[in-house]
Amino acid sequence: MSGNRDTGGLIIDPFGATLVEDYDRLFTEFGIQPLKPLLSQIPNPCAAMRRGVIFGHRDFERIIDAMKSGKEFAVMSGIKPTGEFHLGTLMTAREIIYFQQEGATAFYCIADIEAYEDNGIPFEESEKIAVNNVADILALGFDPKRGYIYRQSREEKVKDLAILFSRGVTLATMKAIYGERHMGLYLSALIQAGDILMPQLKDFGGPKPTVVPVGIDQDPHIRFTRDLANRFQSKFKFIPPSSTYHKLIKALDGSYKMSKRNPMSYFTLDEDPDTIAKKILYAFTGGRPTAEEQRRLGGNPDICPIFDLYLFHFSRDDKEVIDLYNDCKCGNILCGEDKMRLVKIVVEFVKDHQRKKAQFIDKAREILGVK
Amino acid sequence: MSGNRDTGGLIIDPFGATLVEDYDRLFTEFGIQPLKPLLSQIPNPCAAMRRGVIFGHRDFERIIDAMKSGKEFAVMSGIKPTGEFHLGTLMTAREIIYFQQEGATAFYCIADIEAYEDNGIPFEESEKIAVNNVADILALGFDPKRGYIYRQSREEKVKDLAILFSRGVTLATMKAIYGERHMGLYLSALIQAGDILMPQLKDFGGPKPTVVPVGIDQDPHIRFTRDLANRFQSKFKFIPPSSTYHKLIKALDGSYKMSKRNPMSYFTLDEDPDTIAKKILYAFTGGRPTAEEQRRLGGNPDICPIFDLYLFHFSRDDKEVIDLYNDCKCGNILCGEDKMRLVKIVVEFVKDHQRKKAQFIDKAREILGVK
User: Fold this and answer.
1) By C-alpha distance, which of A102, A106, A107, A105 is closest to A67?
2) With an 8 Å Cβ cutoff, is B169 touching chain A?
3) Which residues in chain B are closer than 8 Å to A192, comparing Cβ atoms?
């Protein structure tokens, strides 16, 4: 609620709106903290922070301290190698790169064990996908010289942490957090805890503040890992990991969630730009049935995936996003022209990205040790 | 029941008696097969087989075929590095060495992950214990040139099999086999399945009959692993592992089971021979309260740990064991003299073993890669 009231109205604070409707319970029920009150203390907040896309956190104060004082800290997140980079994995990748540029040592995990346990993807297959994914993050600006990119299946330290942690975990805990799942998913959760705490092992310089930027759906892993960090405190001196939470971007077709089952609900960075353009042009919007009504009543950017694309990824200027929101609300802009402008931006970005990425495939193979 | 009836009476077939009383349900309820009907087909059965100490099996026919035809086969078992070699670990070690001498490639696993998960022993500590244990098995005759000794915590192939297998295992399966345990024990069971099936990986020459000699208490692991071998059949072409089951030797003090909590219930191969002698002399027996009664009524070797020591380990001659059984039953021998003779044999064996073992400590370090 605070989002709107602080800033005095719906139109001025577009980024808070979705937060209020969908995310408020997270603060009261799960102990996630809103990011907004900390925003002024963050030395150089990224667009997603400024716009409320990254809306919540746990213990982020610790990361701000490190950023301000120049103390060592780490950022850790990853990708499940099940397919091409899409708008969700792009979000996480950009967050990692942001924290790396702000001074963090960056850990990027290729969660191939999770891809196997959760999606049944054999390691031989996920290896190929991983090469592609790593080329993406390199093209986006990840600096491998100040970062560590690895596959879970090849990282013995991660597996060994999972083995150590497992002794501290009851079945009741697993069921409470993840429900009744097969052993592979439980093991995968333990390995993910290993991923998150590996940056604090001696081999990587010992205990340090670590931020894990994730979608809100990943919070169970964060809670689980923070609990393990406390339990194994005496042996490792772990600092409980901090986290930030971003909202999930809306599906292009107006459905509940972007999903591989529905190709019109999302696009990937590997797709033909013409196809991407079509998906955007066909997308669901918050517009009215007719142009006349739209001009008279205004559109609804709060439910609009096109607005989300500007908000999350494709507008560099906060002022532009606010203007867009208000212009839509007031009926000053129609969905067609809004989409056309977005198509141009997205197609240019994707073409540029694909060009850069082609040059990073060999480097990606080298980093992953793939022949 | 067949044991006694086949051979016509209690006195002639001492080895069958305990089997009938304690182990019969295993055949009817768990599908374990009695070894006795196969005995005549085994080219060179070891004493424990001939005496009914190894009393049951699963799919042992496959191993007999390999032994007879000279085809490749493996023996796999191990030790949980929680302490010194005792009469139980000695039993397994001798079985492995027997199969190795009969032509098997021998795999000896130091189950340090299990020692951690089940007993909370840190890896730094179990490493030292493992060096000691490996020196024991080398002194007993294990040939490292035709065998593979390894620690679970250092064997990536075993961990990777556990990760692969976990996807095929529901929580219901784990609970049915092991009860409601913590995650570490479940993970340990998956890793043990990895141990048992590792000999069939390409790196070790591919699928082959494998016999796992264990105490009957380990059968849940065997059933679990045989099930996994079938589930992952299409990928690995695993042959379901065979197993043999030995009885558990009676506790020296007449208590339910040899246990570290009660030092008088067992001895280890590292103990001072004088202490071992005392433990034997103080041991519980199947004897009568007085010598007169013993001569008149006879003793009861079936409940006697001293008889078990001859039967399991310290008599080289089957005829001698049968005579001892009958002489005890008929009151021809008293417990005191029986113990004195055993003390002499055991002390001589232990002194000789300790002398040999001292020469294998460096080799054990080398095999385990311990500095």
Assistant:
1) A102
2) yes
3) none
pLDDT in tens, B46-89: 999 999 999 999 999 999 999 999 999 999 999 999 999 999 99
Q: Which residues of B touch A162 (CB under 8 A)?
A: 187
A32 contact partners, CB below 8 Å, separation of at least 6? A26, A56, A57, A58, A216, A219, A245
Q: How far apart are CA A179 and CA B299, in angstroms?
A: 58
In angstroms and rounded to an integer, the radius of gyration of the C-alpha atoms of chain A is 21
Q: Please state, in angstroms and rounded to a whole number, the distance separating the CA atoms of residues A136 and A354.
A: 8
Q: Does B113 touch chain A (CB under 8 A)?
A: yes
Integer-rounded Cα radius of gyration of chain B: 21
Reported ipTM: the value is: 0.87
- Neighboring chain A residues of B186 at a CB cutoff of 8 Å: 166, 171, 183, 186
Contact B117 A166 (CB under 8 A): yes
Measured between beta carbons, the chain B residues lying within 8 angstroms of A180 are 171
Reported pTM: 0.90
The pLDDT tens digits of the residues spanning A160-172 come to 999 999 998 999 9
> What is the rounded CA–CA span in Å between residue B247 and residue B24?
12
pLDDT in tens, A100-148: 999 999 999 999 999 999 999 999 999 999 999 999 999 999 999 999 9
Q: How many CB atoms lie within 10 A of CB B358?
A: 11
Amino acid identity for residue A313 in this structure:
H
DSSP tag of A244: E
> 3-class DSSP state for residue B79?
strand
Pairing of strands B33-34, A242-246: unpaired
Best of B123, B183, B231, B232 to disrupt the A interface (most A CBs within 10 Å) is B183
